[in-house]
Amino acid sequence: MALGDTDVTIDTSNVAESCRPVTEILSRIGDKWSILIVMALSAGPRRFSELKRNIDGISQRMLTLTLKGLERDGLVSRSVTPSIPPRVDYELTALGHSLREPVNALGRWAFANRPAILKARELFDGLGARTSSSALPLSQSVAVPKAGGTSALPASPPAPPPR
Predict the structure, then answer these.
(1) Are 103 and 39 in contact (CB under 8 A)?
(2) pLDDT tens digit string along 69-96?
(3) Measured in whole angstroms, how far is the alpha carbon of residue 86 from the centre of its chain?
(4) Helix (H) or strand (E) segment spanning residue 41
(5) pLDDT by residue (tens digit) across 120-135?
């Protein structure tokens, strides 16, 4: 299969087995640090200290581990220039650059759908405080839109303000 080839067939009779290779790869690229590092390196090579400064909240240890994992998977290359102290630069490989567009697409999707997701969380959190034993009778339900129609859900108090 060539770089970027997307002609993949999933065996729906055994989804777990069919998705195992995808799950393995997504566990590497799906964590927040890997995505942030890929995006930081998309502008060109960076030194370790530049990455640490530009990625808010990442520890030195986590940056080191994530870079090693990305290098192991062929997404990042590491080059050492002999000097005192040694200069180490990281940059995306061709495979790493091929990840930029899917990550950008996922980011665009997240921004576009954030309001709907926040609203769904509010609804869920407002209803989630109730247990099945304290559910209201159906006569005291409210209609909540869902795909293909509406669903009767117990009325709930407004969600608490965000912290």
Answers:
(1) yes
(2) 999 999 999 999 899 988 899 999 999 9
(3) 33
(4) helix 32-41
(5) 999 999 886 555 444 4
For residue 71 the two structure tokens come to 């290098």
Q: How many CA atoms lie within 13 A of 50 on its CB side?
A: 13
**Secondary structure element (H or E) that encloses residue 143, with its range:** strand 141-146
Tell me how crowded residue 153 is: count the other CB atoms within 10 A of its CB: 18
**80, 87 contact by CB (below 8 A):** yes
SS3 assignment for 42-100: CCCCEEHHHHHHHCCCCCHHHHHHHHHHHHHCCCEEEEEECCCCCEEEEEECHHHHHCH
φ/ψ of 151, rounded to 5, equals: -130, 135
Is 88 within 8 Å of 47 (Cβ atoms)? yes
